[in-house]
Amino acid sequence: MNKNCLPVVNELNLKLVKALDTHLHADHLTGLGALRDRTHCMTVTGEQSSVDVVSVRVADGDQLEIEGWRST
Length: 72
What we know:
By secondary structure, the protein is an alpha/beta fold. It has 2 helices and 5 strands, in the order H-E-H-E-E-E-E.
């Protein structure tokens, strides 16, 4: 997890609603679980990911909606 992320979110008085990990590597751990635990956000990653800290898995071509915004 980027340690600079949460201070900026707090400073701007934002609410983290979804955290998306676009890809994972065997040589490092995802920060999704820590973000979820600290902010209660939904966690999102690809359907082929084997991590267990995910609320939603998406497939190639799926659209993601965040507070009324939809990915294309």
